[in-house]
Amino acid sequence: MNQQGYTNGVHPNGQSANGAVNNGVANHSATHESFHYKYLPDINYPADLRKLPPEALTDVANEVREYMVDTITKVGGHFGAGLGTVELTVALHYVFNTPKDKIVIDTGHQGYPHKILTGRKEQLHTIRQKGGLSGFLKRTESEYDAFGAGHASTSISAALGMATARDVKGEDYNVVAVIGDGAMTGGLAYEAMNNCGVQKRKILVILNDNNMSIAPNVWSISNYFTNVFTSPTLQKLRGSIADMTDKMDDFGDRIRKVAHKIEGGIKAVLTPGMLFEALGFKYFGPVNGHNMPQLVKILQSVKDIDGPVLLHITTQKGKGYAPAEGDKQFLHAIGKIDKITGKSLAKKPDVPLPPLYQNVFGQAMIELCQKDPHIVGITAAMPDGTGLNLLQEKMPERVIDTGIAEGHAVTAAAGMACEGIVPVVAIYSTFLQRAFDHIAHDCAIQHLHVVFALDRGGLAGADGPTHHGLLDFAYLRCIQGMVVMAPKDEQELRNMLYSAVYHYKQGPVSMRYPRGNSIGVPTGSMQALPLGKGEILRSGRDVAIVAIGNMVHKSLEAAELLWQEGISAEVVNARFVKPLDTALLDDLCSRFEKVITVEDGQKQGGFGSAVLEYIGTHHNRKTDVHIHGIDDVFVEHGTQEELWHDLGLDAEGIANVVKEFIGFPQHLDTIELVGR
To answer: What residue ranges of the chain are covered by domains with CATH 3.40.50.920?
Structure first.
């Protein structure tokens, strides 16, 4: 049993067993009437699946899809991608000897059918909930999760690394990388494919094409030739011709060249595979990814081909569930929905909620772009998630979508800035990590005016450690000349965006804001903020709380709790991580012996670290500074509220930390560090 509490693999006696345990999640099973399922109740692991005859696999796929729909419509989760890969997942685990054979699934959105077939079926109802299954693949959760991921375009690189390790160690197993067409926009995928062609190791890459029309409409002919090209007979014939022509000197070389040109010419006309062939892959496809008998046959054929192989399959996102087929984007990830209609079951609040931060940003971008033709928004395949969809609807020409290519997005923005455009790059904090060098090398060194709007800053919630935006303060403040800031509310976000566009022009500028609803303060016209200046929101005498971003209002709430216990806390909205308001810090150090910083981010190298560096070098350590943030741990998934509570980052938790810091004589509740 691993540290997460899940039993991996097959029972030692050879019998499959459902060894997963509850791990702290409410002990109830998803309600599936067993009589609906002929095969699935007896499939706990792929070894059980491989006992079935091939003709049963289509029914198995249907049952997996039904189980997934039954479960995820009740609890929410990533939905559409997994529905589209059910047949592929069943076929892969049927043909390949997992977990000895390694299957690396890119990103992980499509991993739910894989979880169902690998010992986690009964825990699927806990997915993305605190203490439950991860929404992505995770090596500590199951030995069948060969590689963990939450960011796109990694699977081919990881799979090639595994194939290299296999060959270095002299072992014998297959390595399969599954990657979606969307992830193929990431440069890492092509770097890996190029290296596959150079190394010529045995590896199978499956391109799951569910959106991009990279394949012409030549289904029947293409499938026919794919069957021909992958047949054992042709592979044997290829080998025989090679052996024979090896003995024929120059004449043999000419024969081989003619044969290769004939085969290549046929493929060039009938398939889109010439790019992959040029990278050193044997290309097969496109294959209908929902045709189970054909899919199994093709996989069995390509399984034993030496060298890099790319199998191109076409699938339908949301396959088999009408609402998801009809609205692939909306049902990519869902909350609780009505199984029949696909409509959300979320209760409407009695009082309208404040707008989402992403929509506040999107509306502000509309206002700026309507007045200024030199502003553009840039997104890396996430217009809806970042709020740029609002601008895209009104002014589509002012939104550039680079696809999943964060590095390219940043460098392209640098190019725009060279020519007088003000690019606003809206990317989730966790995804912008991938473009660190581009920010430093392409933007900062050249002092280019590029604005970065980082959504999902701080704890992102149910998507867990791959999606928490906890590192941005640290990785951005270390870049020379970078302005780093975070708003306390929606009006301050508007003001920061306006200031970043029109007033902070000496280099790159970033502002980060959290996932979810804003505070609910009234909004008005956008105003400029003085660079590097914070504000005192509440006066106090006993301790100073210096907070940043979404921790400001929680600190104000904490100060009120402290006041009720006789502690007078001053609350400061820092606004800026870089440059710091050193005059304000000097003032605090002159009036307080104890200063505590609060941030929704990693303590190492973050906001509090910046404050401590300044005070420690300018005030001879006369002022005691405590950094309150997230320790050196990967924070697991859960709701934002649950995680803030567990990490002592809600009002009560901040108040408790302050009392402990100043030596208030009262029992303190233990703060559970998530991820320890």
So the answer is: 539-662
